[in-house]
Write a structure and sequence with these properties.
Elements (H helix, E strand, L loop, with lengths): L8 H10 L10 E6 L2 E6 L14 H17 L8 E10 L7 E10 L3 E10 L4 E11 L6
Antiparallel strand pairs: 1-2, 2-4, 3-6, 4-5, 5-6
Length: about 140
C-alpha cells in the first residue's frame, strides 16, 4: 500500500492545532510536512525562559513530541489515533533564539511507532535530540 500525503494536510493540521488551548502558550509553526517527516519552528519568548535567558528544557520537549506526532500523523491523513508512550531527550546546548525541530519516523510497528527529532538553533547548531515512542490507539497500519 502506498501512502500519499494530501497537499492540504499542512493546512488542516494548522487549523486543527489552532483550536488546541495550549496554543495560547505554545506558539509553534508547522513549517513542512511530508510522509514520515515534519519540521516545526518556535521563536524564543520570555514565557519559555528557563530563568537563564534560554529555552526551558520542557518547552523543547513539547516541541520534540509535537514534531514527531505531526510526522506520524502523515500516515493517517492528520488523524491522531496514537499517544506518546516514551520520550528520551538530550539537551546539548542552550537555545536562545528561534529553533527548528526536524522529526522523522524510523519504525512503524503494528502497535508501537518510533520517531527521532533534532532541534537546531538559527545558526544550525544541534541543541537537542530526542527519540519518541508512540502507541497506536485507534489507528492501524495496513
Amino acid at each position: 500500500m502506498t501512502i500519499t500525503v494530501q497537499p492540504d494536510l499542512i493546512d488542516r493540521l494548522r487549523e486543527r492545532f489552532a483550536a488546541w488551548p495550549m496554543r495560547e502558550f505554545f506558539d509553534y509553526e508547522i513549517v513542512e510536512i511530508d510522509l514520515d517527516r515534519s519540521r516545526l519552528a518556535l521563536d524564543f519568548h520570555v514565557r519559555y525562559d528557563n530563568g537563564g535567558g534560554a529555552f526551558h528544557g520542557g518547552i523543547l520537549a513539547i516541541l520534540a513530541d509535537t514534531a514527531v506526532a505531526c510526522a506520524l500523523s502523515t500516515n493517517f491523513d492528520g488523524k491522531m489515533g496514537f499517544a506518546t508512550s516514551s520520550m528520551n531527550i538530550h539537551f546539548l546546548e542552550k537555545a536562545r533564539s528561534r529553533v527548528v525541530a526536524t522529526a522523522k519516523i524510523i519504525k512503524k510497528g503494528s502497535r508501537v511507532c518510533v520517531g527521532t527529532v533534532e532541534i537546531e538553533n538559527e545558526e544550525g547548531a544541534l541543541v537537542a535530540k530526542a527519540i519518541c515512542d508512540f502507541v497506536l490507539t485507534t489507528s492501524r497500519f495496513d
